[in-house]
Amino acid sequence: MDLVIGISGASGVIYGVRLLEVLKQFEDVKTHVILSEYAYKNLAIETDYTVEQVEALADVWYDNHDLAASVSSGSFPIDGVIILPCSMKTLSSVANGYSDCLMVRVCDVALKEQRKLVMCPRETPLSAIHLENMLKLSRLGVSMIPPMPAFYNHPKDLDDMIHHHIMKVLDQLGLSYEGGKRWKK
Predict the structure, then answer these.
(1) Which of 82, 101, 105, 108 has the greatest number of C-beta atoms within 10 Å?
(2) How many domains does the chain have?
(3) CA of 38: how far to CAs of 1, 9, 42, 44, 90, in Å?
(4) What is the per-residue DSSP string for 22-37?
């Protein structure tokens, strides 16, 4: 399975890093990774990870400005795209077809090729514009999975909450991940 993972400039870059760490455990998953300019900045602000450490988690790394990259074409076979976290700028660009960077172009291609697209918007509070853009994309088949913690699983720490979210994202792609606790009665 080939997946494009986009990490945009929203707060919560650790979600994207943890997703890449988890996907390394799947032998049959190849990751194509794109970081936005502000994702690099948030990586330094919000985590202790270096760019080199995150690059090492990817199978293939792309420059977000390279609109000629192989993943920008519908003829490049990918199985899905995950944007985690997804900034409102990225969400708006995708919702309005404004493909000015590789991350948005890949989402545009996923939509036109009817491939799985999962976006994890990270913002609060949400404005009517944010909600309208999410609704527009949801109606086009995009899975909207904002990082919202569950408490039925009795999370012990932030990692428990992050891994629960990653489980929910991977469920959308048919990848079973038991790093998050599922609902049990």
Answers:
(1) 82
(2) 1
(3) 28, 4, 6, 10, 11
(4) HHTT-TT-EEEEEE-H
CB of 89 closer than 8 Å to CB of 119: no
Please state, in angstroms and rounded to a whole number, the distance separating the CA atoms of residues 17 and 131: 26
The answer to whether 4 and 106 have CB atoms below 8 angstroms apart is yes
Helices (H), 1-71: 13-23, 37-46, 51-57
Could you tell me where the beta strands, DSSP code E, fall in 87-141? 116-121
φ/ψ (deg, to 5) at 36:
-80, 170
Residue range 129-173, pLDDT digits in tens:
999 999 999 999 999 999 999 999 999 999 999 999 999 999 999
* CATH number, residue 16: 3.40.50.1950
Q: Is residue 37 part of a domain?
A: yes
What are the structure tokens assigned to 176, written together? 């079973």
Q: Write down the pLDDT at residue 26.
A: 97
Q: Which domain holds residue 166?
A: 2-171
Gap between the Cα atoms of 12 and 46, Å rounded: 8
Strand segments (E) across the chain = 2-7, 30-35, 60-62, 80-86, 116-121, 143-144
Q: Which residues contact 132 (CB under 8 A, 6 or more apart)?
A: none
